[in-house]
Amino acid sequence: MTENRGASQAAIQYHYDVGNAFYAPWLGPTMIYSAALWPDDAGTPSNLADAQYAKLDWHIASAGLGRGDRMLDIGCGWGGTMRRAIDGTGIGEAVGLTLSEAQANWIEEHHSGQPIRTEIRPWQAYRDNQPFDGIISIGAFEHFAKPEMDRAAKIAHYAEFFRFCADSLKPGGRLSLQTIVWMNVAPEAEAGNLPLHIFPESNLPHVSEVFEAAAPCFHPMDFHNRPRDYSRTLREWIRGLGSKRAELSAMTDGETVKRYRDGFAGFVLGFEKGVIGLTRYSFLKR
Ligand SMILES: C[S@@+](CC[C@H](N)C(=O)[O-])C[C@H]1O[C@@H](n2cnc3c(N)ncnc32)[C@H](O)[C@@H]1O
What we know:
By secondary structure, the protein is α/β, with parallel strands linked by helices. The chain has a single domain (9-32, 47-285), classed as Rossmann fold. The protein is built from 10 helices and 7 strands. The protein has a 7-stranded mixed sheet with strand order 3-2-1-4-5-7-6, sandwiched between helices. Helix 4 (80-89) links the parallel strand 1 and strand 2 (93-98). Helix 6 packs across helix 7 (207-214) and helix 8 (227-243) packs antiparallel against helix 10 (254-273). Bound molecules: S-adenosylmethionine. S-adenosylmethionine binds at residues 4, 6-7, 12, 16, 32-34, 74-77, 80-81, 97-100, 103, 122-123, 138-140, 143. S-adenosylmethionine binds next to helix 1, helix 4 and strand 2.
């Protein structure tokens, strides 16, 4: 079994097991915790839920998923991606991997009766003897390397992820990936720019590391970098945290709400100054 050299289960639970009730008021009905896909024209009206669905539909198409297909969602959060693929595309079965018990409980409660199976298990410890038609992984890659890893160590570990995905796909299968990436930052300044108080034990890839690690197993078919997709999403979350502050503080403490708001505000600056980017990839199995 491949060792989990990214963020540990304890680190992930520290973040996500703050409680489902804490996330629900500001993530909104989709319960999607990653950058949405906003229209390019800033004047085009759109709301967070519509922009999240647009993002999910991009990934479902990018993973080549169709009616009756079987999908794997690596880092499935609260299950919104799998549910969209079932409701919108009519896929036949979804398996979701998460490290968070609270998320798995939410899925059981809110998506019961759906062809969804959730495993509280890192991809490093997951094997299925039936290959998947498509794989989606949104906002989990950021947890796959630790801050102290150098470029070579990160690429070696990311390559294990791509090998796992290729081995889990049917011939001609696709992987759709979304991750935050480093852009304009000096290597020695990277660690200081990570909000480790929100996301402990995590690190970001550079775009070149993603492509280099994927190359032995996948052909890149599509790619974009849209930092504004994340800054706009973060502004929506900050607005939600602000308007629900009393409710959220009552269920945790004022300090937690402030930690999230300040952390998100730091991320907004990072995206707007070009320190970090938001990338999406469609990969075809070699
Ligand atoms: C930011 S959330 C994104 C959730 C969801 N994809 C979305 O867009 O709403 C990151 C997810 O990755 C999961 N995760 C992190 N490291 C993982 C690993 N090694 N294996 C499986 N899941 C992992 C977490 O448990 C969490 O569900």
